[in-house]
Design goal:
The chain is mostly helical. Helix content is 67%, strand content 0%. The chain is built from nine helices and no strands.
């Protein structure tokens, strides 16, 4: 837990405090505080990533965890900077703010719930365990990667909540790139482990977006 807290604080520092040093008066603006809480929630409910784990699992993971981290950080910094310096942070477009808030926290809840269902099988890097089982209950009954969808919604929700159009576009593009790479690597590993069972699972579910993909 100590490492999770450290990573959460570092994430908040990099994405929401350092970018606002030019406008320190809005660091504790209610919008930034809400995003801080969401940011920390995402870090605290998932296993802590480590450099050792990243290196040890590079053959299966292909450093996709690093790509996800880089894209996540960028996708948070861009809307924060746009909100703080290129718009009026004290003016909020109420519809977008409300919709963004809902998407953000729905994403956080979906992400954390999906991680809880996977339990020990959820790892920051792609890992296959000796007693690995294919989880198909809960949201996994509909899509194969609901934890990634949760993170995607949370990060895009941040940009919408901050009323940042450029941030929303950047977050959608960056996170989709990251998760396309990650899902491709992960599904190759899972097909190798579960064979036809995973192929049948693929036929009746979508990868990331319900009814679409």
């Amino acid at each position: 837990m100590k490492k999770k807290i450290q990573l959460a604080l570092v994430s908040v520092l990099i994405t929401q405090i350092i970018p606002l040093l030019g406008k320190p008066e809005i660091i504790l603006h209610y919008k930034n505080v809400i995003v801080m809480l969401a940011n920390m929630s995402l870090w605290l409910f998932q296993p802590a990533v480590s450099a050792k784990e990243t290196t040890e699992n590079k053959s299966k993971d292909h450093y996709s965890v690093i790509l996800i981290l880089v894209m996540s950080v960028s996708s948070t910094i861009i809307p924060v900077v746009d909100w703080a310096y290129f718009s009026n942070p004290y003016h909020a477009e109420i519809p977008a703010t409300v919709v963004g808030f809902i998407i953000l926290w729905f994403g956080v809840v979906l992400r954390n719930y999906s991680i809880r269902i996977l339990g020990k099988h959820f790892t920051p890097t792609i890992q296959l365990q000796q007693d690995h089982t294919l989880i198909t209950k809960g949201p996994y009954n509909f899509i194969r990667h609901p934890s990634y969808l949760g993170a995607l919604l949370a990060i895009v929700g941040i940009a919408i909540f901050l009323n940042s159009i450029i941030g929303t576009v950047a977050a959608c593009i960056a996170m989709m790139i990251a998760y396309v790479v990650r899902i491709d690597a992960e599904e190759k590993a899972l097909k190798g482990l579960f064979g036809n069972t995973y192929l049948e699972y693929q036929k009746r579910t979508k990868k990331l977006i319900p009814f679409l993909w």
